[in-house]
Amino acid sequence: MNLKPLFFLPLLAVSVFFSCETKGDKAEEIPIESMRKEVAGTKVTVAKAEKRSFDYLINASGKVEAAQQVTVIIQRQGYLKELDVKEGQSVQAGTLIAQLDNTNNIFQKEKAWVQLKNAQASYNSEKLGYATIFEGENTDQITMLEEQLKASSGLLSAEIELKEVEMELAKAAIKAPISGKVADLKIKPGSLVNAGDELCEILSTNLLELHVKVLESDIPFIALGQIAEVYPVSGGTGSLSGKVSSINPKVDENGLVEVGIQLSGASKLLPGMNARAVIRAPQTNSVVVPKQALVYRSGRPVVFTLSGTESKWNYVEVGKDNGREIEILDGVKDGETVITSNNLQLGHQAQVQVVEENK
Known about the structure:
By secondary structure, the chain is an alpha+beta fold. It is built from six helices and 23 strands. Strands 3-12-15-14-13-16 form a six-stranded antiparallel β-barrel.
């Protein structure tokens, strides 16, 4: 009686073994396609590849400068008697901004004036001796005689000396060469100055330009009059609009080219401020996709397109990038649907489920 359970135990083990083997055989017979359909598709968003105009954005940084910036130079030696401006003050072209002591110049002018009068009297006296010639009709002879008498009487020298004194006197009055704001005053009233000393700078702040350095490879895409967006580093003013006003025809040692951008509505900016420019260079006949559609696999650019309910792996050749969109030179055609989300780990022929944005 005690041996009966042991007798049936091997039979039970054999039965279980064959039962498991049979179930395993049936599992292996399930088609792979059926399993793929049973797996939930990856939720993705999509967009259309479009052949259209594409704005290539060229980013560059630089400094704001006044369109006109003139250094006021003192032209003669003397004491700075008056200084009629302060830094930041607006002045008009021709306005008197400083005055050198001109006491000696005034005396020299009076002296030169007396010498001129004496020389004029001598000239008139000598001229009386040639009344017949001056009353004649030989104009060439009269002209030559006048020049000789002016020289011999000292009238010619006196006239030149008076002009020199007047020019020296005019240098004592320092005037604004252009309209603008005064900056960097370097001399105080009462100082002894010399010819060539810098008094201040005058900046034409009503017309400002941003000068930026652009890669030489981007220069073919830039032209005069092109629209640019300018973002001051200081912030607060938002973005400003501008137009390309100049392109330096020389490349520097770093492979950069200076580009000038004339600003509009820049009343809150000051020369010397730092700013960033974004120059728009429209490109035509480009296949464009959202930048999110591009991923890299083993260092190569890939864009997944939608084929029914599956993803399709496409190696692509990329062109320019404007931060939001990217140009596709080869690998994706106009009108194809590209996958723009959950594509970092996506595989070829993977099941996908298209959903709307923000879902």
